[in-house]
Amino acid sequence: MARQPTYTGSHPLHISLVALPDAVASTLFGIYDVMNALALLGAADPHRGARVPFRVEIVGEAARPLKSASGVSIDVQRPIDAIETSDLVIVPSILLPPEGWRRNRYPRLVEWVRRMHEHGAALCSACSGIFLLAETGLFDGKDATLHFGYARAFAATYPAIRIHPERVLVISGLREELVSSGASTTWHDLVLYLIARYAGSTTAQEVARFFALQWHQDGLTPYIVFEGRTDHGDGEILGAQQWLSGHFSIGNPVEKMIARSKLAERTFKRRFAKATGLTPIAYVQRLRIEDAKRRLERTDVSVDEISWRVGYEDAAFFRRLFRRTTGVSPGAYRKRFRIPEFARP
After folding, report:
1. What is the CATH number of domain 235-343?
2. What is the phi-psi region of residue 117: left when phi exceeds 0, alpha when psi lies from -120 to 50, beta otherwise?
3. Where in the chain is the domain with CATH 1.10.10.60?
4. What is the number of helices (H) and of strands (E) in the chain?
5. What is the pTM for the complete model shown?
6. Over pLDDT 70: what percentage of the chain?
7. Measured distance CA(45)–CA(49) in Å, rounded
8. Quick one: average pLDDT of 262-291?
9. Is the pLDDT of residue 47 over 60?
10. Nearest to 319 by CA among 330, 332, 308, 305
C-alpha cells in the first residue's frame, strides 16, 4: 500500500496545485495563498519561528503562462513531467463550457495524477475539479461532492461515482486520500481541513482567523435552488408542472392538478414521480419552500405570514418542513441570505 502523506516538522509536504485552461483563477489563487498562509505569516512576523508545513507549486503540462477560464494568466511554475512524487494533488474548480465536460481532453494530466496517487499522494478537488479527477477511475464506487449546479451533468458522465452535492466535504478511499469539496467557496473548508489534518487544528484556526474564513457547518442544502426536471419527455406531466408553477399555493393543488389532467389518479402519480423524481406532494412542497426562501430574502414579512402566503395555515408545520428541506430554520435562513441594511439601495 502506498505511503500516507505525513508532516514530520522537518520537511514540508509538497502540494501540486494543478493549472489547466478550464481552471477558475479565484479558486486556484485562493487555495495557493491560504495553503501558503504560514509562510506568508512568517514573513510578516519573523519572530514567530513557525515551521512551514507545506510547499505549494502551481503545476501543469508545461512551465509557461496559461490563460485560465477566468481570462487571466496563471504562471505554471513546474511541468508535471519534472515531478516524480507529490504529497497532495489539488485540482481547483473548473468552468464547464456550454456543451459540458469533454472526456479524454487531458490524458497526460490524468495519467500523471494516477501515478502520483500510486506513489502515495492524496487527491483533492475543489468544486468542479472532480471532473478531472474522475477521469482517473480512482473515484469509481466511491463517494464525492461537487457544485450542485453540475450534479446532473456529472452523474450522467460518471455514473459509477456516488455524488452528494449537498455536502461540503466528502473524504473517501482506504487511506482517506480522496477528498472533494462542494460548491464554489467550499474550497475554504477544503484547505482548512487539509491544514487541520496535516498541521493541526490550532494552526487551522489561526489561518481561519487571519483570512476570516468560516466553515460551512450547515452544509450546502440552504444554497441549493430547486428546479424541477423538465427534460423527461412526458408532455402531460410537463403541462402539469407548468400549471403548478403558478398555482402551488392554492388549497389542494395536487388534487386540482390531477383533475386537470387526462389521466387516472394512480397513473398520474406514477408518471409524475417517474418524470420528476418526486411525488406530486413533495414537488409542491419544494415549490412552496423555494417561494418562501425568496420572501425571507427580500421582505420583512413575518414567518407566519409567509407560511400562509405559500399555502400553509399551520405555521408550526411550515417551520418543521422548512428546516427539513433546507437544513436551517426560516429565521436562520433569513439572517444568512438577506442583504444587510448597509448594502441596500
Report:
1. 1.10.10.60
2. alpha
3. 235-343
4. 14, 11
5. 0.89
6. 94
7. 9
8. 97
9. no
10. 330
